[in-house]
Amino acid sequence: MTSESIITEDIEIRHLKQYVVHELGIILNERDDWKKIMSIVTVDCDPLKPLKYSAKDIKIVERAGKRNFPERGCTDIFLDEWGTSGRRRPRLSDLIMFLKKAELHQAARYVEVDVLKKPESPGDNTEAAEWLQEVIQQEEANNKTEYIGELIAFTFCDLERATDGFNRKPYPRRGNKLGEGQFGTVYYGKLKNGMEIAVKTLENNANYSSLNSDNTEAAMIPILLFENE
């Protein structure tokens, strides 16, 4: 590798290789993250100076990006404008600073690790941590008990845990199956808060034609809950 091909933090953004700009565009265009950087860039990259771009400027870049896509995306247009304006031309180090300030860790990691070839810190995997947090939050949302008026809406996971996986072993034999009728099976269940319930699952091939009008709505619900009083 020749010294001319080595990219350092001192390189001006306007001199970045096109493949670097392209990869940054893939990362920053997906959720319009380029706006986060453009909205915090300061004049001459000096934190003591005012913001360089207004909301109107961001709109102009956005419209230009839509007109020129896919040849040139918004990130490409923004970096071109930013990199060729001002008395002090922004460098790659400035881009990294603003990426981190905007908490765009994936883009910052790409520049530092893939472009500048800096070693990745084993304990600094922010992207993976954010992904794990999203998974945890989604799992909590899926298992959250919600209230609809005076009724309690349980998740499938709640019912599966309460009935020991819809254990079909008869209840007298330490199973959960209470009985089986024309329309489905009834299971004994116990929620995490100690509430005892009966869970009725309706069979897909059940004949609902004999249900009276009072039960028509219930027949449309895959799982029915009855408090075991």
TrEMBL record:
InterPro entries: DEATH-like_dom_sf (IPR011029), Kinase-like_dom_sf (IPR011009), Protein_kinase_ATP_BS (IPR017441), Ser-Thr/Tyr_kinase_cat_dom (IPR001245), Tube_Death (IPR029397). PANTHER family: LEAF RUST 10 DISEASE-RESISTANCE LOCUS RECEPTOR-LIKE PROTEIN KINASE-LIKE 1.4. GO terms for molecular function: ATP binding; protein kinase activity. Residues 175-221 form the Serine-threonine/tyrosine-protein kinase catalytic domain. Residues 11-124 form the Tube Death domain. Keywords: ATP-binding, Nucleotide-binding. It comes from the Eukaryota. This is Protein Tube. It comes from Diaphorina citri (Asian citrus psyllid). The keyword Nucleotide-binding applies. The lineage of its organism: Eukaryota, Metazoa, Ecdysozoa, Arthropoda, Hexapoda. ATP binds at residue 200. SUPFAM superfamilies: DEATH domain, Protein kinase-like (PK-like).
